[in-house]
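Record 1 of the preview.
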Amino acid sequence: MNSVTVPPTPTSPIAPDQILLGLNTFGDVGLNDDGTPQPHAQVLRQVLEQAQLADAVGLHAFGVGEHHRKDYAISAPEVFLAAAAARTTRIKLGSAVTVLSSDDPIRVFQRFATVDALSNGRAEVMLGRGSFVESFPLFGLDLADYETLFEEKLELFDKVRAQKPIHWEGTTRPALSGLMAYPPLEHHLLPTWIGVGGTPESVLRCAQYGYPIIFAIIGGQPRGFAPLADLYREAMEKYGHPMQQVATHSPGHVAETDEQAREELYPHWLALRNKLGAERGWGPAGRGEFDALCSQEGALYVGSPETVARKIALLKRNLKVDRFDLKYSSGPLPHSAMMRSIELMGTAVAPRVAELLAG
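->
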């Protein structure tokens, strides 16, 4: 077996006056001019264009989320990322998230190791349980096993990621005794994040494995996650792990002015919010909720480059995060509007954030 030399992790914390900026999308299915849904194949090709633009304007990372429903086009993140690897040169390529509970941890590792090779070391994986459960009946899994599936598969993934002979046993699959998973990564272990929705139990699980953490902040006020970020850092120290990056993910949209950004996003945000709300038993939303979320303390990063940059700088100061990922797609928001948002994130928001944090 080839030994693995592990250099400093690419997810080590960065300087206190800096923040990395990335993008996330689920491949939201938009609408044609006649109001009919776009074909999923067309959406996938558009997302590839969006990844190329994100790379061209110098953003740090591009992540695609796994879903198994008709309103999102990306169900196989690694296949998309392999295509993106061939069209980009610098940007990190990852999932946001991979639903580990309904996948095979060994295959997840192998697919991302392949993306890492094709991208010359730019792959990363974000593991999570996901906020949707369509993958469970699709792959013949019982929702009653929700917790056990994630806990056991995360334990197995961690052993596979170590690139050593795998010794593992549990209840969700036959035991492994000394087998290896290929291909190994060339120069480092696979950068692996845990995506959490905001429970202390999830934070402590992430710290137990010593992985970097990303909080999905889609409502309320980001500053409310400060105690969880502190809990993660305290737990990492308790477990004796070297400190890793803390990141957040939130929806948003950037345009030339605050008014333009809000008016472009609002109808699409509202349609998506009320659709999901009907599925999950939430009450209907309206303009008041949207405007509150767009305020300086809210969880939506919507506005001009100056407004969005100031909110990101505030996030850095409040939570001391190392990275912020903008979920730039929202329901049927037009491809052209998303492309402009990406362009502004790289050419206007990023340099302005750097100025604000340096001041």
